[in-house]
Specification:
Chains A, B: InterPro entries: ArsR-like_HTH, HTH_ArsR_DNA-bd_dom, WH-like_DNA-bd_sf, WH_DNA-bd_sf. Chains A, B: It comes from Phenylobacterium terrae. The structure is a homodimer. Chain A has a 3-stranded antiparallel beta sheet. The first copy, chain A, is built from 6 helices and 3 strands; from the N terminus they run ααβααββαα. By secondary structure, chain A is an alpha+beta fold.
Chain lengths: 112, 112
């Protein structure tokens, strides 16, 4: 189970480690259901190039593709992002602590 | 600037796409300042193997290494995780919407 979870998280973070793939997710958040060819056009990619990126996103569970006739509509699937965020949120206390320290330093400085 | 930000985020997500590297961050959250050899030992890795993982984490700005004599202490640097979380939080409304829909469905079902 831990191993299974690991490899899911691996795929999510790996899919997010590319600016085009993050761009596709941002685009889909604004325009849900865009077609593969519209996505390819807006990133100036050929269809096979966009399809490769969509395959990585789909393997990570970050998008779903629905075929109607000859058109493939792409939609955002946010669950893996929620899991990634839950993992990252474990570390929230570290940057909160750093911010508290910063505020304390600024106040100290102002009190001088 | 956008490009610079992109490549920083690429490195962060890429560094997080490995269970050992995520494990190292989890370990450092509990035991800050662990040495490289202690980390290698707890992940049953040889020193060069652990050093490679630490290089990836360090390139992403996720850890700092401090050398004192012959010991290298490793600490967590949470800033890139905060940026990654800020990026992910753009999508929070999507899973919140899905959860709202789920609650509505359950309530509908209960009302029958």
């Amino acid at each position: 189970m831990a191993k299974h979870m690991s490899s899911e998280m691996d795929r999510t973070f790996w899919a997010l480690a590319d600016p085009t793939r993050r761009g596709v997710l941002e685009r889909l958040a604004k325009d849900p259901g865009l077609s593969v060819s519209e996505l390819a056009r807006s990133f100036s990619l050929k269809l096979p190039g966009m399809t490769k990126h969509l395959d990585v996103l789909s393997d990570a569970g970050l998008i779903t593709r629905t075929k109607t006739g000859r058109t493939v509509a792409v939609s955002l699937a946010p669950a893996p992002m929620q899991e990634a965020m839950a993992w990252l949120s474990q570390y929230e206390r570290f940057w909160t602590v750093s911010l508290d320290r910063l505020v304390a330093l600024v106040e100290e400085d102002a009190a001088r």
